[in-house]
Design brief:
Blueprint (H helix, E strand, L loop, with lengths): L22 H21 L3 E3 L4 H22 L5 H23 L4 E3 L2 H22 L4 H11 L1
Antiparallel strand pairs: 1-2
Helix pairs in contact: 1-2, 1-4, 2-3, 3-4
């Protein structure tokens, strides 16, 4: 071991680990979520898409919001963390759908917050089901990598 790889106490120096986000997994996740958005628009009466390609825009909008806000919600200490965190993330997803409605100029239409909340629940359930059926759910590998880093 060289001197550069040691810290001040003589132990191994800390170095950041690789993120491990594969562009292919990201693309598959995006397609999976877009499919869930498309099916949810077919099921939920107050949630409509202009065309099938709009599902990709909505899935991207939800992904951007979910990349930022749920980690912040998870970091906040609150009673009944699991239940409240779950409900807050669903509310955030509903808010992302409302935001997509106001910013995507007619590509998506949401009649109101209750419809957005129902659509968020349906999208979440469908996305999980589709990922499990297709075998693209890699949570086990991710959990193993987190445990190995600890």
């Amino acid at each position: 071991m060289s001197e550069e790889s040691r810290d001040a106490s003589g132990g191994e120096a800390w170095s950041p680990s690789r993120l491990g986000i594969s562009p292919l997994h990201l693309l598959i996740g995006w397609i999976t979520n877009a499919l869930a958005v498309f099916v949810a628009a077919w099921i939920v009466p107050g949630f409509h898409l202009e065309d099938p390609l709009s599902a990709f825009l909505v899935a991207a909008a939800i992904a951007i919001v979910n990349a930022v806000l749920p980690p912040i919600v998870a970091a906040v200490r609150m009673p009944f963390t699991l239940v409240l965190g779950f409900l807050l993330v669903l509310a955030i997803d509903a808010g992302a759908l409302m935001l997509a409605d106001s910013t995507l100029d007619g590509n998506v239409t949401v009649d109101g917050f209750p419809d957005a909340l129902l659509a968020a629940i349906v999208i979440s359930g469908l996305a999980i089901a589709i990922a499990v059926v297709l075998g693209t759910n890699d949570d086990d590998r991710y959990s193993l990598r987190v445990i190995q880093r600890i």
